[in-house]
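HUMAN:
Sorry, I am quite new to this. Are you able to go through these amino acid letters and fold codes? The numbers rather puzzle me.
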Amino acid sequence: MLPRLSFILAMFVLLLASPSPGLAEDLESKAAKPLFSFKTDDRDPLFGDRFTLKAGYKVWVAKWQAQTVSTTTGSQAVNADHPSALNGPTLTGILKLRDSQWFNALVFNFTWMRDGFDFAEPNTPANRQHFFANRRDYSLTAGLAIWEGFGIFGGYYHSRQEFTNEATDNPPSFATVRHPRTVSGPIIGIFGNIPASERFALYGNLAYAPLKFRGQTLSTFIQNSDSVQGWMVEAGTTINGPRVWKIGTELQLGFRAQIIQKNFGRNATGGANVNATDQLPLVDLTYGPVFTLNAVF
């Protein structure tokens, strides 16, 4: 009787000590998960299943074609003699609203970029000058995914531009002059994200911005206008990279372009008219490849 009782007690202890098959597989999976992985579906989100945070750095290798002065008969245009890298941090938050194709997520983004631009000047004895500019752009937007990865967004855009014109002859033929100006206002648009495979996706956005211009078009000529229109477009591909601990990586490669038309004169609002005439607009065009590297939390 005693040996049989000992055998029953031993089997009972073994049953208590052995985990269930499902629990064993779960423990084995957690124990076997490496710190570094190229898989895209084995990351434990740092903020849970409903919220994703992307912190990254954006570089826009851009050419800038700007017009600095306009009259009733023409405009003075300057072109960057080589591309510059507008660069800065970007932060994106994605809040999952529900498990559905419709109205499924809110998206928030802040991007800030800056750089300096050198412009090509005509190489003539009468034009011994160096023309350059510093530029700082930032945008703050919030969007709603309406169906799958397609949605609408709205927000605020601000660009500060400071043009500098300095003489290069000796002695200087004129004093250094600066033309500071800002372009700012609301921005609205549409966006889309289309998964192409487990590791690749396509993205794009298109925006329109009714803006305001504040600043100088000449060193002593302050000119304002509320009749400014901006159009922005960006498209490219997203590549999901390896995971390190609970942090994923993501690389976006694309092309970005924006055009801003600053209208003055009789048909403009928000500023003094120039002799009540239809002054020609100033047009800014910026375009080039764009790269963003994100850490996904």
Remarks:
- The CA atoms of residues 61 and 85 lie 4 Å apart.
- Residues 11-17, 23-30, 272-277 have pLDDT under 50 and may be disordered.
- DSSP finds two helices and 13 strands in the chain.
- The chain has two domains: 1-32, 37-296.
